[in-house]
Amino acid sequence: MQILSKVWLFCALLFISSTASAQLTIEITRGSDQAVPIGVVPFAGAEGMSEDIAQIVQDDLERSGLFEPLERSAMFEKPSQAEEVEFGTWRSLDVRYLVVGRAQQSGNGYQLQFELMDISGQRRMIGETVTANANDLRGAAHYISDQVFEAITDIRGAFSTSIAYITAQGLGDNMQFGLYISDADGHNSQQVLTSDQPIMSPAWSPDGRKLAYVSFESERPAIYIQDVATGQRVQATSFEGINGAPVWSPDGRRIAMSLSKDGQPEIYVMDIGSRSVEQLTNSNSIDTEPAWSPDGRSLLFTSDRSGGPQIYQYSLGSGETKRVTFTGNYNARARYSPDGDQIFLIHRSSRGYQVARQDLDGGRLVVLSDSTRDESPSVAPNGTMVIFATQQGNNGVLSAVSADGRSSFRLPAAQGDVRDPAWSPFLN
Amino acid sequence: MQLKPLARSLAVALSIVVIAGCSSTGGTQDGDSYGSQDGSSMGAGTSGAGTSGQYGSTTGSGSGAGQQADSRIPEVRTIYFDYDRDSIKSEYESAVMAHARYLRANPNAQVVLHGHTDERGTREYNMALGERRARAVQRFLNIQGVSPSQMSVVSYGEERPAASGQTESAYSQNRRVVFNY
């Protein structure tokens, strides 16, 4: 066993930078026909603020696919608190819910007071005053979106989460790779690592504080673990052959990975504390792309033991493996839904490689995406959206589709390829 | 296709080195034009041997001219693969043979075989497919008598494409194994 118990490296490759060369923007590509009409009224007292709080909330809600925001130009009243809301006015605009609020400067930041109104029920649902730092107004807005989303849907909002992703530019021997973290809406991208060698497969620790990823910086693949806040990192593996596809166990103590040190790639589990690895699969075929079930008891993985790639489930208790996918001849890179009942994966259909969903205990496989060069699906921690990489023209872009397939949006980058997205767990 | 002239000249060079009559023009699977040239030179070098012998010892008739050629790293350092395949196409066998001769003649030489795939399919699965291609070349070289200690394999999967775009032409340039000395 050649595990490097290397000390934490302060690597020269590491740059934390707030300049965003890979800034992502949002394009809604498909709106749900069942989206709920909602109005988000511009906040009173927001003049001079660096961010438009109501616009951020409105964009968050629209991106979820569950809401259809009312155009601002259609709002002929601008209430900023519950007492000012004329229910009849908004009912005539077919709005079901209304978000109103006001901002007040306070020290180095703002007090943001918001209220959510149920128009058809003619009642105030929730309200809260949020203290926001001047440099984290977007974070405060996402917090408000989370509260509004949960009050209406009963599903925890995932707007205050992050996305890790990889950028690439160039060809062949002349390439630049970057590992970035941004807000879930693509804003505030921060460069975590750059390299002229490939970086791939970022994976969040369950507490959202660390990333595991594959880097070829030593001219061969190795898995690294990096602390997001401090940038400190350690090389976790340096086995012969493939060191790939890291994913954390739900308890954060182990990492499942694919290693080919003894021939074909097999699924292994590494204990992060001791660095010892245990081999789970043993087949004369490719076994890779593990995903840990939310209850920690089983793993999905891709194997071509039946010929083409299919999804299998390994039970940690019994050591038994069973095949999960049977539709078509290419199903790969599966991820569990947060409740563990469904899986999201890449399915090769007659049109191409697409994001699909299937019940874990059999059932029909449902294609969710319209695009046909999809890769790397990653599920939002509340299970409502799946982000994935696809192609737009000749560029790799990030795209997302709702878990029911009804709505989708895209996050194109200004330049280069963006790929390999990993949606963070709930943060804070 | 950039490689075609190289492959052609190598095939010609081989047929000069290995002066033997060819009794067969077979040995190709794809039936394309330059594949059959390589196929015939392969057949020439392995007179009378069975299937395994085709990949077995080919030296013996090489002698002087061959040794001269073996002092330099062979020029063709990239070979290409069919979609979803890891078998070495017959048109590239002579190129791989040249590397085998070079590595045998230079026991201190080290080669890293870089396996690559086109962009279709998932990244980590492609990593495994790229490794499969590089290992197929490694096995071939090993059967040719190259010491395992001279070879290592690194798969880059789809991470380092040689050509961009979603065309069959780009894909075919990306499905490759590169010999790195």
Provide the CATH architecture of chain B. Answer: 2-Layer Sandwich
Globular, elongated, flat, extended or rod-shaped: what is the shape of chain B?
elongated
How many structural domains in the coordinates of chain B? Answer: 1
Specify the CATH class of chain B: Alpha Beta
Classify the fold: give the CATH topology of chain B: 60s Ribosomal Protein L30, Chain: A
Give the number of helices of chain B. Answer: 7
Number of domain modules of chain A: 2
What is the strand content of chain A?
35-45%
User: What's the mean pLDDT score of chain A?
Assistant: 92
CATH class of the largest domain in chain A, named Mainly Beta
Family (chain A): Belongs to the TolB family.
Keywords (chain A): Cell cycle, Cell division, Periplasm, Signal
Subcellular location (chain A): Periplasm
Protein name (chain A): Tol-Pal system protein TolB
